[in-house]
Amino acid sequence: MKKVLIAIEGGPLTETVVQHGINLAHLIEAEIGLVYVVDATGFMGEGGYTIQNYIQDSHTEAKELFAKLKSEFDIRQTWNFIEDGKLAAKIIETAIEWKADYIVVGTHGRTGVSHLLMGSVAEHVIRLSNIPVLVITPEHK
Fold it and tell me: What single-letter DSSP state applies at residue 101?
């Protein structure tokens, strides 16, 4: 059976990315995997809020998002992955370990200085992955 791994992050593009991932999975009769990556790089806590608190809260948020998306899109069966680390690297690593046939990611379409400062997870996934990547932009809504 084929497998489609959909990278989610809970932002405004998430539902669009998931819908396109589901469409691809139905088209090729594939299993669906959802991956949520918690990147604590640069975390700066305040008032006793630690990196462990941040990671734990992020894992809880991921589980709630998985449940919401599964219900909203009437997904009967998914594989759910919560990974800690660098976004692009963990998406690719999960795809390889799960033996995904496709990766679906979203991009916010930043350009100029914001793109230079923040980079693009989707761009890194495309460059580093040997697995085909479907990139969803805000225009796909």
Answer: S
Q: Out of 3.40.1620.10, 3.40.50.2300, 3.40.50.620, 3.40.50.12160, which CATH number does the structure's domain 2-97+128-140 have? A: 3.40.50.620
Q: What dihedral angle (degrees, nearest 10) is formed by the CA atoms of 58, 59, 61, 63?
A: 160
CA pair distance 112, 36, nearest whole angstrom: 27
d(CA 55, CA 60) in angstroms, rounded, equals: 9
Helix, strand or coil, per DSSP, at residue 55: helix
* Helical ranges in the chain per DSSP H: 14-27, 51-72, 87-98, 112-118, 121-128
Q: What is the pLDDT of residues 73-111, one digit of tens each?
A: 998 889 999 999 999 999 999 999 999 999 999 987 554
Judged on CB neighbours under 10 Å (0-12, 13-18, 19+), 16 is: middle
